[in-house]
Amino acid sequence: MHPSHGHHMEQWCALWSSFLATCRRHPILYMFRGTLTKRDDGDLPPPAHGAISAARLTRLVLLKGPSQKSGALVYAKAEFQSPGGSVKDRLAAAAANLAGPGGLAEGTSGSTGISLAMACASANVPCHVFLPDDAAAEKHALLRALGANVVALKPVAITHPDHYVNAARRRCTLAANNDDKPTFVDQFETTLNYRTHERITAPELAKQLEQLGHPY
What we know:
The chain is of the alpha/beta class. 46% of the residues lie in helices and 11% in strands. The protein has helices at residues 3-25, 51-56, 64-70, 88-98, 112-123, 137-145, 164-173, 191-211; strands at 60-62, 75-77, 104-107, 127-132, 149-153, 183-184. The chain is elongated. The model is unreliable at 22-55 (pLDDT under 50).
């Protein structure tokens, strides 16, 4: 890594740490999706102004090229506008909302780890992220800055017991007691994934399309 890149990364991590500390003192400032609040996850907020409502509803973007070619209006939902920069924020928020005192654990080399670390920091529960040790140094640094317990493992095949996903699953079964036992997110198999989109994302889409004059 170039020295200047390392300096910028340190500044970025320091900024995130300061931001999270402020959020813990003033929860209203936290611009996460909002499913971390203890509410029915099917109860969507009414349209409103302000940072929290803006973070809850990512925009729909009209795709002109596909629309012209198909003869229908084609929209894309701009999930990159979420605080974690991806659609994984939705599952992470829902999982953190249901987490016990042991928090969450997941094996991930992608954006899920960032989303989970942010969600757990907001919910004030532990986050254990298992990932390959050859993942970008910036990702390791950001996860730690967000308060996650990072376990870096040598890359091996998914069938190997020490693959980072299998290690995360094992961490959830070897806890000494229930208070220390994290919940294994299991992002690709959990029904919470589709249920979150069914109860949260789908109503958002329907409401946004209706506001655009296209009732669903």
